[in-house]
Amino acid sequence: RFSDDTLKVCYDSEGVIRSFGFDASRLYPGGYSVAEVEKNAVPEDISIDGSWMFEGSAIVPRTYTQAERVELADKKRLSLIADAVAEMSPLSDAVELGRATAEQSARLTALKNYRLDLIELDVSDPDKIAWPELHDVA
Fold this sequence. Notes:
This is Tail fiber assembly protein. The chain is of the alpha+beta class.
């Protein structure tokens, strides 16, 4: 029987928190272990994005392996590339059709350079990544 005033956390075999809630009946712990944590010991920014772990009796920030850190860095790089491409598309149309303002053309050039910087970025050592910046052209 769980206490009514504790947070219930579902965590996997690695200790990574996969679900949580105060009402145990709303959790589906299939394949996970479940533990209780006092309300005052719960971090305000806890989430189920894989960045929190349950260790012993406490919720702690997750410590990532080197391979996981490389994977996270690559996902971030790919997400930033996708964001740049999404912004580039209408600007590219405007330039191609001769309808772009000077500011739009400059922004497209900045985005293309930024995208190439991201494509060329080495993420094999997350501690040494110097993330490129997208500079304003206003």
